[in-house]
Amino acid sequence: MYTDYFGLAELPFMITPDPRYLWYSEQHQEAKNKIVYHIQASAGPIYLLADIGTGKTTLARRIMDELDADKSKRVVFVFAPKLPTTNAFLRFVMDEFEVKTDRSYSRSLKNFEAFLRDQFSTDVSPVLLIDEAQNMTRDMLLLIQHLFNFSTNKEFLIQMVLFAQPELQPKLERLPSLKSRLNIARLAPLDANQTRQMMQFRWTVAGGKELPFSDEALSEVFRITQGVPRSIVKLANEALIKTVAASSKQVTKGAVIAAAAELAVGQL
């Protein structure tokens, strides 16, 4: 690849959700602060709504990593599973928290409530982070609503955050009692200046100094990707590969256009 060519310690533009590479725009910081506040203050469930590729999974992992260091929290991070029944989903969550399940749905719920109350008595707050929550069925969402009932007079016994694409919203619209109890945070694509800052940040984390993209190349990256972080990462990576192949030290607008053609744009 191009690590040695540009004197990098590692590849800066990979689409894996490595929390080290999460650059905080103002909206990322605001969303993170809002979510962490709800968790720390036991202020109720919240969901993050974000288009695909805008960084919700990476943000979820960063929050999980930070909470893992907090001994008063017991954090479980899961991707919404495609399971046939709500009972299977409940058992899945309980297994993640290492709670004994039962073949009976109602008894499993009682076991889980007993676990939550036991954790509360020892000043431990279980936290459930669910990514790709737009894949949850209506009944699974109703189970989430039921878990809100496990509370004291002052706080919830389990803190929950749903990370989802916009497809979750119409499901919530059909469940007004659930929607009314959820707080919301949002992420949107980056603007042109934020695109440049994010790329420079990732370059620096990888061990680089000055980002080797011309101003025209950066403008073209933004134009093609419309500020979607995952698309930016894929396009920047491909443009750097083409730049090395051309024995150049600066990524040009032409290299970005050629990279976009290679990636077939629609796959960005």
Task: Walk me through what this model shows.
- The protein is an alpha/beta fold.
- It folds into two domains: 26-187, P-loop containing nucleotide triphosphate hydrolases (Rossmann fold); 190-262, Helicase, Ruva Protein, domain 3 (Orthogonal Bundle), CATH 1.10.8.60.
- The protein is 49% helix and 11% strand.
- The protein has twelve helices and five strands.
- Strands 2-3-4-1-5 form a five-stranded parallel sheet, sandwiched between helices.
- Helix 4 (86-96) runs parallel beside helix 5, helix 10 (215-225) packs parallel to helix 12 (253-262) and helix 11 crosses helix 12.
- The radius of gyration is 21 Å and the shape is elongated.
Features of this protein?
12 helices; 268 residues; single chain; alpha/beta; Rossmann fold; 49% helix
State which percent range the strand residues make up: 5-15%
**CA-based shape:** elongated
**Biggest β-sheet strands, sense, barrel:** 5 strands, parallel
**Total helical segments:** 12
Q: What would you say the CATH architecture of the largest domain is?
A: 3-Layer(aba) Sandwich
Order of helices and strands: HHEHEHHEHEHHEHHHH
Unreliable runs? none
Computed over alpha carbons, the radius of gyration is: 21 Å
Rounded average pLDDT: 94
User: How many strands?
Assistant: 5
Task: Give the % helix.
Answer: 40-55%
- The total number of structural domains is 2
The CATH first-level class of the largest domain comes to Alpha Beta
